[in-house]
Amino acid sequence: MKKVLLLAAVALGFSAVAQDAVNARLMQAELPVSSAAREKIEDIILKRGGAVDELYDYTDFLYQYYSSDMVLGAITTTPDSTTTIVYGDGSASASYNHAVGALYDFNYYGWGDGEFDEGDQVTIDSLFVVGGYEIYQGNRDDKIRFTIFKGADGFSAPFSGVQYPAAYFAALPSTVQPTAKTMDYAGSTSHGLAGGPTSTSTVQVEYTLDEGDTSVALVGVEVPNGGFTMSGDELLGIFVQYIPDSLSGNDTINYQTLSGDVNPFYFYYYREGNTSAPQGYFIQDFDSTSTNCSNFLFTDTRYGNWSGTSSWRNDQTSINMNYSHLIWLRASGTSTVGSEELALTEASIYPNPSNGVVNVELNANANATVTVVDILGQVVYRSNENFVAGNRKTIDLSTQAKGMYLLSVEGEGINVVERISIK
Question: Are 165 and 250 found together in one domain?
């Protein structure tokens, strides 16, 4: 069974107060999501085919566990802060969401059959994002721009670590200070449309929006020149921007009158339903993957307005592990993970999620050890079992705390690891 290791914490003077302020600003920018849009989002997710070995989406991976406490939201994104946004309730504010992003770690067991080993080559074939597009001004050349780049899975450029204060997430022990990755960004007071990830080698792919993309759109692009190649031990950064055809110093997007000088585009995402006691659904794997889908570029980041203990934000995108954008990608390659285990005995573990009572069933007679560890790698259950093909063994974890666990079944010819959730 793979060991769950804690990443070395990097103290960067993270300010909980600043994080709360960012949460408030983000929540203020949320748009009401219609039932039709919600159904369309669900339709996009459900019809993606479930090919986890080809299509990677961290949001969808966690949604299956926490669908009862996931809320769909949307934020309007414009590249400059001079745009005034008037919301449906009549309130107005300056634009302060400038881009969204994601980090992907292909050397992560959570991808199941699609996990790559550290030495494997991975090719990124295409990129996708879900958003809403409205045409207030016709004959515009509005675009979605994807910028992708790679880097070492460490705490250095173009990816840095941000440490959350202990007890920030209710789902984690009070003594744990998880470290999450973010992407380095070059910002200054005069950037406006300029600026972006600091990586010295990036690939940009643009998609021109048209009438067929109005309402809820799944925007997808192919990566040129045969794809973007990287090693399984590297991280992939995805930076997604909406670039309107033209901008001036006094543009307006008015959702009340459905008019404006700029056509609006808003990125959809899922967030936790309970923000007063955040569970940190998108950080519960902080000790086993650098994957996250919660990078935001804000006004205060783009124009270097952070100071003191939060000054790190001037050079990085901000991350919020209570949110996850609908960003995913298709990747290909030959994985060497589990290549010697294809003929091993298979196990069925159900229900998942559960209330703590889990059934384990093998398709062969075998003696095996069942082990369950929590997110800190601590063993909470272990038992040696004599399995009979087709007969289930019941594992009672009802006394354990709600959250994510790893359940492994190990024996001669058996090596199964599955992530389970107790709700």
Answer: yes
